[in-house]
Amino acid sequence: MSETTPVPVESGDKSATALKKEQKKLEKERKIAEAKAKKAAEKSVSGEQNKNEKKQEQVEENNSNWGELPMNQSKEKIKREWTDVSQLNESSVGKSVLIRARLSTSRLQGANLCFVQLRDGLYTVQAVVAKGGANSKSMVQFVGQVPKESIVDVQANVVATSVPIESCTQKTVELQVTSFFVVSKSTLLPLQIEDLSRSQPLLDKQEEDLKQLEQLLRNTNLNEQEKTDLEKKKSECIKFVNVSQEKRLDNRALDLRVPAHQSIFRLQSGVCTLFREQLLTEGFIEIHSPKIISAASESGASVFKLNYFNTHAYLAQSPQLYKQMAICADFNKVFEIGPVFRAENSNTHRHLTEFVGLDLEMTFKDHYHEVLDTLDRLMTTIFHGLETRFSKELESVNNQYPFEPFKFTYPSPRFTFDEAAAMLAELNDPDYIVKDNDFNTRQEKRLGKIIKEKFGVDFFIVDKFHVEVRPFYTMPDPNNPQWANAYDLFMRGEEICSGAQRVHDAELLEKNAKAHGIVIEDIQGYIDSFKYGCSQHAGGGVGLERVVMLYLGLGNIRKASFCPRDPTRLTP
Amino acid sequence: MSETTPVPVESGDKSATALKKEQKKLEKERKIAEAKAKKAAEKSVSGEQNKNEKKQEQVEENNSNWGELPMNQSKEKIKREWTDVSQLNESSVGKSVLIRARLSTSRLQGANLCFVQLRDGLYTVQAVVAKGGANSKSMVQFVGQVPKESIVDVQANVVATSVPIESCTQKTVELQVTSFFVVSKSTLLPLQIEDLSRSQPLLDKQEEDLKQLEQLLRNTNLNEQEKTDLEKKKSECIKFVNVSQEKRLDNRALDLRVPAHQSIFRLQSGVCTLFREQLLTEGFIEIHSPKIISAASESGASVFKLNYFNTHAYLAQSPQLYKQMAICADFNKVFEIGPVFRAENSNTHRHLTEFVGLDLEMTFKDHYHEVLDTLDRLMTTIFHGLETRFSKELESVNNQYPFEPFKFTYPSPRFTFDEAAAMLAELNDPDYIVKDNDFNTRQEKRLGKIIKEKFGVDFFIVDKFHVEVRPFYTMPDPNNPQWANAYDLFMRGEEICSGAQRVHDAELLEKNAKAHGIVIEDIQGYIDSFKYGCSQHAGGGVGLERVVMLYLGLGNIRKASFCPRDPTRLTP
């Protein structure tokens, strides 16, 4: 059986009329769904009191194939075969499958038919409960009243659909339900998953229309009729709840259920896996350096201080010193994936106070470009791996947050800082003239655009930054004392990795530290560690959330952090 | 050319005379080495002043194939083929190889011959510099004076040895040096690598002998002659510097160079790799939960507090709540590898204030044993992987810290808490009668012994701990309200993992929290998250350092932590 009115896919590139029509339909569906959810929730709340009566009623009706299961306390081991929603396709047709999933939406059609959408992670499938055979009318009504987001066990026969079900990921099959049990019942949701899942272009369009109408309304020459018409249009324009990023984060456990968000964190997991796979293949080993440290590692200004028994301590701003300690200790190639803490009061789209650092450090034989090549190979391997192994997840993100596919080549275009500055200077715009030998954020973004236009790629490397803008432990260029053997990696014009050859000579390190005004006693141990023989080495640190945000073009790093931390957010 | 006096391997199972003889020889070697190191270091220190004069001298002698290289600033890219020490074996014979390694030891034999041991990580090889051909007498003398632990580039011909070189890991080959350059020169070491590498049984034997002599000296009936003899024996007995664990940690970068320690951290990296490999194969995804949190997650007593902008925050004592949040958010199987912070003032062999948690949480269909089975499969896969993939590292650890190979079966023996308590009760010893329904440390150790004797394994599981000793969020057993669906995993009689089925029902969770005297408002958000439908789930947390310590029988968790943190240690 196939549903007669499939919900069209939301998409960014539709004509205005199609979009309007779609909005209208979605709005209607939303109202119906909301009313039903409210009703179901009311029932669910009041249900506690007369559960027993109801249960009695159910038994009379014969509920051997439907109902609510008691809370699972692991009473028995049952040998049953389960099927994942993601596994359902043409090859499942004709089989009876047992599925555990969330009831995403349900729609009663009359007394004897109910359409249900089941969701598991980023996969959805349509199920139909119809009166007939062992299925009673009460069963159909019961299913229609199960609160959305409840977890259910469904036994069903898989049938092929005549028309693809566009509202589900599993479009070619449908489930004919033969038994339906609630495993864990939801109550009234503070936010609707549909609202959290709505495609960004649709919301942006609404926002834009609203702005335009408000601008028209500000026109003082309007007569009363015109005003009334515009006001009406304005009220009609607000069709969808546009849940703010903050409200989403306040309800993170719900917000994460959205298929696109499920996919973002599956991709995040993938970045870590690919990072490690590649480095382990190249002979790296993984280390775990301490996060509680006795002195500020990078800069005293942006460090979190904590009480440590009878003294105090700090949270590591990077594993820099420890990675280098590993190098001094003959672990020639090391990486670490771990939290990095920055007490910077930066409230931007790309700063977090706690993020995941993908760090590496390695010795090289002759030239730090051996390390830069490793970083290039590493990042492009990650990009390639995401593309090839996570196509479903990318599609799912794309549905809610359409983005340009990430372009890269290997080897990636590489420029010196001066070359990159010259490309910006060619614009003949004073805003893009680099000052103080460093890019600002706007200049970086613009550089990304220029390189995308010229070279067709979203990933590039800038080498030979000037010594003055890098830390004291950065190795100066041997040919030009103004340059450093230091580099940044960029994705879509935003920095995702900063790295350099480090000074491995105690004498030079002390000299440079002094020149930077650093109190030598504070870092004596660090300096001393290079006195007992140390290979030349270089490394870098990649911000995991930035990589995910920029690869997917998400626009806000909070979308790429499981539970983001910023100066104003400590929960959940 | 083969060295005539190879240093014998230190081993724990030698006869007393052999051990004595060995000790004597090692002692002699130590004295020679120390004198030489001192001399070399003096030269190295004073060398700065007359470097130019010396360089001049060297040029006159023709040093095209030896000398000190300038600090590497990545001046040029040189295309050269490098060989790792680990790659050297019979198949290398007849080749000329280029190697970068540490000069581990060197021994001049007369004016024209110098034996050198080169070390890279856990691998060592013998090299010989002999006058003849392009090699001058000055070159031989230069090599003999290079400070130990300097990093050197050596070009050499590989030859087969007639007698295995027992003092090196690469026993069947030797290098005939044709060029020798110092890449990074070491200064006088605060601790000798030989002392840090000495086999533990040898040190223990010395300790024991010393104790015995001191006991004899305490005998008041001794005459003067006897006293003098014993004092002499005592002074002779102290042959080896026994570097304390604390002193080792104070000089961690040197201590980690020791082959056994190199191996420990390669194994630690291996545990993480195997953990992830197995879980990714089983469909888990990796998450990264915040470490800075707004409220103490487990217990207020043992939490670190920090300043967070204008408020304060805490360091996560476990990712428990976040793993469960991931479950509520439909990530059905999640794991995390990350730091865990405990402000407990425990100064024991197995407690750290910061350690690496290997955490997992997963939904199950019918019974939490699905999760316990996963944990069993996971741990035994890790043990198996260490055994098969890291034999060289295990051998290297075993050389310094001999240990009984870790025994396990799959599935592992599994007991209920009551069964395990009964096994202890059978001993008829009041010390082993379990009180307050929980084991103490001694009882756990003894339990490990009993199970090793009865079942021949070092890994086992205890299930069904009593509810009263587990956190409020633990699911009670459905058949016996005194029991919980809670388990611990043990290695060699020490707990390495604690886990349970969690309460996924908001109502029961609130009830249990109240019964535990918890203020509901403090955890309202946590309780609420289970109101919107949540699958039954269970999980556990494994301590990485404990797994490594116990697998290798190291006896102190600090040996398995890169830079351990305890109540009295915050550095390095």
- The CATH superfamily of the largest domain in chain A turns out to be Bira Bifunctional Protein, Domain 2
Major sheet of chain A: order of its strands?
7-11-12-17-16-15-14-13
Total helical segments of chain A: 17
The largest β sheet of chain A comes out as:
8 strands, mixed
Q: Give the largest interface.
A: A-B, 110 and 110 residues
Name the shape of chain A in a single word: globular
Summing up helix and strand content along with how strands pair, one would put the structural category of chain A as: alpha+beta
Taken as a percent bin, the fraction of beta residues of chain A is 15-25%
CATH topology of the largest domain in chain A: BirA Bifunctional Protein, domain 2
Q: Radius of gyration of chain A in whole Å, from Cα?
A: 29 Å
**Number of domain units of chain A:** 3
How would you name the oligomeric state of the polypeptide chains in this document? homodimer
Mean pLDDT of chain A: 91
Cα end-to-end separation of chain A: 43 Å
CATH class of the largest domain in chain A: Alpha Beta
Please mark out the parts of chain A with pLDDT under 50 across 5 or more consecutive residues, or reply none: 1-16, 44-50, 52-60
- Roughly how much helix do the residues of chain A carry, as a percent range? 25-40%
Tell me how many strands of chain A there are: 17
CATH architecture of the largest domain in chain A: 2-Layer Sandwich
